[in-house]
Design brief:
This protein has 132 residues and is mainly α. It folds into two domains: 2-89, no CATH class; 92-130. The chain has eight helices and no strands. The chain has helices at 2-10, 22-38, 43-50, 56-72, 78-89, 92-103, 112-123, 127-130. The longest helix is centred in the first third of the chain and has 17 residues, at 22-38. The N and C termini lie far apart (40 Å).
Length: 132
Amino acid sequence: METLLKRFHSFKPPTLKGSENAIDCECWLEDIDQFFDSLDYSDDHRIRLVIHQLLGDDKSWWISMKKALDNRGTVVTWSFFKNEFYKLFFPASYRKDKGAEFATLRQENMNIEEYVSKFDSLLKFAPHFANN
């Protein structure tokens, strides 16, 4: 694990300080997810390394969440972490509003790059559309 941690930190992955707004947190999660994908890390490595990138309240949240899950015998996957992270930073009402925004998204005055960017950013709030 020590070698893995040293290698991981050599790439200077982003940290989450606990004082960011929801959009900054979303960007952090996307960035750290890309790091893990690029380095081809397993779920186990992702879960073990992510704690080192969380600071402040975010770190406290994950430590207590992980302990509770371990006590229940819950297997924590990277998808599970991301789901819990979104629940924390994006309440149900926010996700519902963003899902509705996705459902009514139109290109209108946006160029194609802007439209695709908006589409991609909203898609995570309407995962049922991703299957279609």
